[in-house]
Predict the 3D structure of the following.
Amino acid sequence: MNVDTPMSTIRFRLRSVAVIVVFVAAISLMACFAAIPLAIHYYKTSENYVAQADTNKSADEIWAAVVRLAEKRKAEGKIEILERDDTERLIKVTDGVQTAEAKTIPVGKSKSRLTVMADIPKGEEGQREKEQELAARIMNNLCEEAKAACKFVEK
């Protein structure tokens, strides 16, 4: 029997365990990054409410999700689609009170920025509750649709 066999077997097992530990640590770290909520920058200008998010998805993927959600809400009778431009990745909708515009732009190969602007209804007293405001509702609905954790960051 070779004297080196038991030692080489032990080294092999130790290396195998080390590789498994590194692999599990990498998977755990990736899961932590996936749990980080998507920051949605939300603010009000003199004419609009604006919600904006940078994503780690391509502009085409985000645009497909926006269109899918708009068509779903239209079928439910919750919004009306006023304009849609697939080339520019721009859609304009209304809920009967506010009009909103969503635009997706590429920010690199596999990243994009989604901006949703909703007008401030005429005669509005003060600021609307964020939960009732159209730009915020659209972003919330997209987060729910994508099953993504999202967090509003007030500017």
